[in-house]
Amino acid sequence: MNDIRTQEMNLNFGPQHPSTHGVYRGVFTMQGEYVTKCVNHIGYLHRGIEKLAESRTYTQFIPYNGRLDYVSGMLNEEAYVRAVEKLMGISDQIPERAEYIRVIMVELQRIASHLVFYSSMALDMAGFTPWTYGFRERDTILDLFEMAAGSRMMPNYMRFGGVAADLNEEFMPALRKLLDIMPKCMEEYHGILTGNEIFQARTKGVAPLSREKALIYGISGPSARASGIDYDLRRDEPYGIYDRFKFNVPVRQTGDTFDRYIVRMDEMAESVKILEQAYRELPEGPVLAKVPKIIKPPAGEVYHRIEHSKGHLGFHIVSDGTAKPYRLRICSPCFVNVAVFEEMAVGLHLQDAVVAFASLDIVLGEIDR
Amino acid sequence: MVLFLVWVDMFRQWLVGIGIPALPAEILIKTILVLIVIIFVLTNLIVLVWLERKFAAFYADRVGPNRLGPAGFLQFPVDIVKMLGKEDIIPGNVDRPVFKIASICAFLTAIMGWAVIPLGKGMILEDLNVGLLYFIAIGSTGTIAFVMAGFASNNKYALLGGMRTAAQMISYEIPLAFSLLGIVMITGSLSLTEIVDAQKNVWFVFPQILAFFAYFVCSIAETNRGPFDLAEGEQELVAGYFVEYSGIRYALFMVAEYTHLVAVSAIAAVVFLGGWNAPFGLTFIPGFIWMMLKIYLMIFLFMWVRWTFVRVKVEHLMHIGWKFLIPLTLFNIMITGIGVYVYRMIAG
Amino acid sequence: MDKKIDRQALVAFLNEKMDAQAEVFEDNTEGSIKVSRLKLVETMQELRENPQYKFDVLMNLSSVDYPENFTVIYHLFSIEHKHYLTVKVEISKENDCRVPSVSSVWKAAQVHEREVFDLMGVVFNGHPDLRRILLPEDFTGHPLRKDFTQQAD
Hints:
The complex is a heterotrimer. By secondary structure, chain A is α+β, with helices and mostly antiparallel strands. Chain A has helices at residues 49-53, 73-88, 96-124, 128-149, 171-194, 197-203, 211-216, 222-226, 233-236, 257-281, 333-337, 341-344, 350-360, 364-368, and strands at 9-13, 25-31, 34-41, 158-159, 162-163, 300-308, 311-319, 327-331. The model of chain A has no long low-confidence stretch (mean pLDDT 88). Chain B contains twelve helices and no strands. Chain B has helices at residues 2-17, 22-59, 75-84, 96-112, 131-152, 156-187, 192-197, 209-222, 234-237, 247-271, 287-308, 314-347. Chains in contact: A-B, A-C. Chains A and C meet through strand 6, strand 7 and strand 8 of A and strand 3 and helix 3 of C.
């Protein structure tokens, strides 16, 4: 038996693979079915958005944001628009109704993004049924976006000083219907997946991420909160009108795959709470402040970040006083989060690596820009 | 149906009457019966695939195929026609002979199990008196076809799939055999016809409920279905051991899988659910129809489990097979042994 | 984003402790300091570990191509104290543009620095694996530089 040689094998996880969430390529060095080394290869979706920004005006760049994390269009646009508003100094001139509409859109988008996470994670484990349940509600949310913004996925809805258009009369009843069925749907999602013993056996204790490691790697968002970092920009440094809403921030301690899953499910429930409050308190009024036609922020720079569904999405904008940005840097949360996978995957079984990758909840559009 | 046997007899007498000696006549009849069984299985396949897709859709709040034929019934035959027309792509560096016969072997071993399955009283291809043993043995040979496919494909994902299949199917042979051992102890025979006859009063699913549960789980693992479909783990291994197969070779693997599924359901119906015996004495419905109903009940259970659960991890698979099912079935054998002994003492 | 620190005190502390050649950087944000690239790693280490400052999160690492220099910008944040700081390092364009890597201080810097190297061409000394991250390996040029002409096919 001692003349049988074993050899490590290189396995390409992607770029064509049903379980990488986009065009991602991980080169695994495998010993049998266990990963001994993982090297990330990204850039398959690089479109040079940051360079393109330098030759577009600020308003022309708004639709580009929907293409960053394409499952969270409204959130990306909000980050960009708030950064430029901060640079222009008009953050406090946004009308009340516009702020409330922004909150409604952003929280709906957060639920939609977490539903993509839920469905994809279930699908990565061959749970075909939870996948369809998640996308059923996501479809309803996308229909709401179509009512408001005209487009399901790349909404192009936020503007400097407010939002592009007011809500039509069908929106609020449709939103009410969705909010009424959401608690029952959340029960359904938990019923088919969370309590299932096979699911728990596959996620509990898999790929734990300690708090120190999460801080050092700069992890943010639900993945960081699953590792014990109790920080949420909406509660701790509220921008817009987030200080008016009562909601909890779910935090877990172990940082394993199951915790990352539970944090996102609880966040969905909290977003429903925020939506209920916003639905009740939505005032009348204009939806766009009086801003100049050509946006020329004063020379200077700004770094503003928001609590995006994947982490902290930050925009670093350097302006030279002209109508086009001098430099626009997008600090995307998935770009930082995916780097920890190289360390996380070592020692994992291939099946666990797939599930751990799904629990990081990355979208390649944001990583590659 | 007795009518069917009467026709077979009449055909045999006619053949002898026109001068064909007994042995070739018998061979001819058996060949025709084998063909009938294969056609029956393939017809079942059409219904099964349609059922599976409709069930999957129903569980997932969808509609399923609804364009071709009534309620989408002709979707699968049209798919087969499409697959027959596809180019037969064989990748460059594969082991060509092994690659080509792997899919045929998978179908062959699945259909060979049908030699002993009774579909009604007397409607059995060959009533071996070791029928159950034969079925389990043929089921074991199915493993080799998947391993052949995995190795010959010259693809790392296929290799991983083939290895996993070998480990999985071997692990679940033992609890499968043990779960059927209790039935053998009660009836004292391995012949499937005698097992059905022994269930005239009580179906074996009631005294042997543990064995039924173990058999159910083991057969999901044996047919590579449901939560135990690691070998073709689509989401991790991109179709596992048949990733390099296309067109009709791929279809053959699917046909083999469904044939094995129907065979395993039929065995469950025969051994646990009373075979062609009618429940509550409703004997005006022929035994063959009861048999079909029971087979489809088992298939419905298999499909229900598949579309509800997520896939298990390899370690858990091994754990369930070796550390849970084997002790469970051994415990069942012990109780059955005690029960049989006590029953014989009481009954004198 | 608003809690700033006393930059004068910080600058004096850094200059005294390790001669970081730090100065307060006057711009519209009122939260930036400028340090020299020579003592960059020690400065960052101090900023991260000193209990008064405790900047344990590197939020962002950008680079800007100004006409007179390249500027590498580090946006720092402290979870404990919840205050912010922007550190700028200016590199002249004449010599090869080299800056020490801070990936030994925050692992998050590894991917950021690879991207800055890829798109802007700033080389980070001491980076464990400095190669292109977004563009293909055989790409020539650094697109985010202002003198990069857009390749037409």
